[in-house]
Each structure stands twice: as structure tokens, then as C-alpha cells.
Design brief:
Largest sheet: none
Strand content: under 5%
Number of strands: 0
Structural class: mainly alpha
Number of domains: 2
Shape: elongated
Order of helices and strands: HHHHHHHHHH
Distance between the termini: 88 Å
CATH class of the largest domain: Mainly Alpha
Amino acid sequence: MARRARAAKEPVPDGAVKRPRGRPALPREQQRRRLVEGAWRAFERSRYEKASVADIVREAGMSTRSFYEHFASKEDLVAAIVEEIAERLLVELEAILAEPADDLASQSDAALRAFLERLPTAAIDLERLGGNAGRRIGEVRRRLVQAITDLLLRHLERLHREGRLVREPTRPAVELVLTGIEGLALRYYGDGRREELLAMRPALLRTLFRVLA
């Protein structure tokens, strides 16, 4: 027994690897992903306003300490998610519009569907989110509209050169219709009316064509 006790107290030699206790730590990006997914489940369960950080970490199976290692607050988490959604949306739209399409209506419908379905599915009123998170989201929304405008203008100008559009659209017209659709979509999502919004896609597509084509 004495020999066993002395061995337990002896220091670990330099260069030796200590055996980890319990489960190994998750990679940082995987931790963040679990928190984001847990947040959406919490928001869908009890709406954004009522969900707390405790609810989020419970859904994610993470600790409160892990949450604050990644996000400053619940609002900061939402702002980060919106930035991520915007980046993914631009990549998806660029891929859709880069594909050669014989049917312009089908291609436009695919782009509009991607835009609407990429928005958050939880009932979060982004337009009422205040503080630093609200400012970040406002800036992301402005950048997103500008980036999609640039992307769509290049696409429509190419179609005009090919003779597939009668007239070349103007930038103000493109910005106007995109801002209108984006604002409408966020209001519907904020009210928890996602399915109602998606059902409006044919009408939104007709409006898009009347203004731009």
C-alpha cells in the first residue's frame, strides 16, 4: 500500500502524456454548431423573447461557460447566425444564377425559393432587436441587399446582352424590389408566419418579373 501511495504522488516525467479524464473536449467549431442548433430549438419551442441562455445550453447539451466562450449574449448569438445565413445565401444564389438556364422563370423561382427558405425558421423579430446586435444585423441586411443587387444586376445584364430581356434593369429598381421582399419576409418570419410567406412565392415572383423584366 505504501509503495502504491508513493507512486501516485510521484510527478509525471517531462514529455509524458497524461491520460485525459472523461470525454475529450469537442472541437471549437463543433461546440459553436451545437450551440447554434440548440438555440434554434429553444427559439422554436418558446419563441426568442422567452428563451434564455440556460434554455439554449440545455438544448445544446453544453455548459453556460461554453456558451460565453463563443458568444457575449443571446443577442450576439442571433447576430452571428444572421451573418452566417447571409454568407451561405450569397453562395447559393451565385451557384443558382451561374447555371445555364433555358427557362428564366424556373431559375428565378429557384433563386427566390432559396432566399425565402434560407431565412431563420424560428419566430424572431429581427427588426426589433436593439443594441449592438441590432446594429450588426442592420448592417448585415444592408450588405446582403447590396451584394444580391450586384449579383442580380450582372445576371440580368448578361441576359439583356443575349437578347433574353427586352430592357436592361436599373440598380434602383433592383434594390427597391429586393428591399421590399426582404422586409416583407422578415416581418412574416417575425410573426411566425413562415408557411404563409412561402405560399406567397408565386405572387412575389410575378412582382419580381414585372419590375425587373
